[in-house]
């Protein structure tokens, strides 16, 4: 994945439409939430087999792309290095969810 070219494409898309003025972190967070909800909606009421069929996969792919767009856009606005943030969070997750304590068990709050 070439994240830099993706970021450039997103910035070009925003600039061409003069949308920077609407892209405060609050607005992008709300849009990200909406797109994540649309992804969940793709799977709503499906059984395990239906959730794996091609039509479902295709619908999910579009919503995942929308979620990714807004996630990258949020990182641009807040000057967050997504790759670095991911690796730092995984370090914390490895401690929080110690493999010796949670292997084979669901995450519970």
Write the layout of secondary structure elements.
Blueprint: H1 3-17, H2 25-43, H3 54-78, H4 82-96, H5 99-102
What does this 3D model show about the protein?
With 109 residues, the protein is mostly helical. The protein is built from five helices and no strands. The two termini are 33 Å apart. It is globular.
- Which structural class best describes the helix and strand composition? mainly alpha
Number of strands: 0
The outline comes out as: globular
Task: Pick out the low-confidence regions.
Answer: none
Instruction: Specify Rg, calculated over alpha carbons.
Output: 17 Å
Helix residue percentage: over 70%
Proportion in β-strands: under 5%
Secondary-structure element order, N to C: HHHHH
């Amino acid at each position: 994945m070439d994240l830099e070219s993706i970021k450039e494409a997103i910035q070009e898309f925003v600039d061409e439409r003069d949308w920077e003025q609407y892209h405060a972190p609050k607005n992008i967070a709300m849009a990200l939430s909406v797109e994540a909800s649309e992804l969940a909606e793709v799977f709503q009421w499906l059984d395990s087999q239906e959730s794996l069929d091609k039509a479902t996969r295709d619908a999910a792919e579009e919503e995942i792309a929308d979620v990714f767009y807004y996630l990258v856009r949020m990182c641009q606005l807040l000057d967050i290095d997504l790759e670095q943030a991911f690796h730092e969070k995984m370090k914390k997750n490895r401690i929080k969810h110690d493999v010796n304590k949670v292997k084979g068990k669901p995450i519970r709050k």
